[in-house]
Amino acid sequence: MKETGMERHGPAELVLAAAVARRHYLSGQSKIQIADELGLSRFKVARLIDFARDSGIVRIEIVADGELDLDRSARLQECYGLRHAVVVDGGRLEPTALPEHLGAAAARLLSEVLTDSDVLGLPWSRSVDTMTRALRDLPPVDVVQLSGAMEVLGHDSSAVDIVRRAARATGGGSTIFDAP
């Protein structure tokens, strides 16, 4: 049987650790508030919270909405020093549905990080095209085309279409250029 550290503590201390952890994690009380209410030092409260977490009385689980892989997103962000990174969990999706989910996630991220002092530059790609179809609630920014206006066979959208669609979503202006 795996030792958790609880075996070395009596029942009163285990109950106290659980009560302190419940107040801290579930009720949102500060360590100082808990210490005052229970007549303990804040250092004792901190030790009890650490003990509750380390011994398994408290288990912290980070749960995503199912569409995003929060762990991989955070690791990607940390690994490359990015301000923002979003990884879509495509494991449960049909392959044909993945582009739509990627586009929607990118659109939500853009809605979250774009400010009215930004200029949005967009290239042509299938992913960016899908993202622009999902854009909602953007600040009024200008949108600039970053790649040529070449038509892609079998695809009904160009860089110009993408920029114009994004500009309509932002209510800002669009800058396009007719170049291959």
Task: Describe the secondary-structure layout.
Elements lengths: L10 H16 L4 H8 L3 H14 L14 H11 L17 H16 L5 E4 L3 H8 L8 E4 L13 H12 L3 E2 L5
Parallel strand pairs: 1-2, 2-3
Short description:
The protein has 180 residues and is mainly alpha-helical. It has helices at 11-26, 31-38, 42-55, 70-80, 98-113, 126-133, 159-170; strands at 119-122, 142-145, 174-175. The model has no long low-confidence stretch (mean pLDDT 88).
How would you characterize this protein structure?
The protein has 180 residues and is mostly helical. Among the domains are: 6-55, Arc Repressor Mutant, subunit A; 114-175, no CATH class. The chain is 47% helix and 6% strand. The protein is built from seven helices and three strands, in the order H-H-H-H-H-E-H-E-H-E. The protein has a three-stranded parallel sheet, with helices on one face. The chain is elongated, with a radius of gyration of 25 Å. It starts with 10 loop residues before the first helix and ends in a 5-residue tail after the last strand. The mean pLDDT is 88.
Extract low-pLDDT stretches. none
| Helix vs. strand class | mainly alpha
Percent range for β-strand residues: 5-15%
Shape call:
elongated
Please identify the oligomeric state.
Answer: single chain
Number of helices: 7
Mean pLDDT: 88
Strand order of the largest sheet: 1-2-3
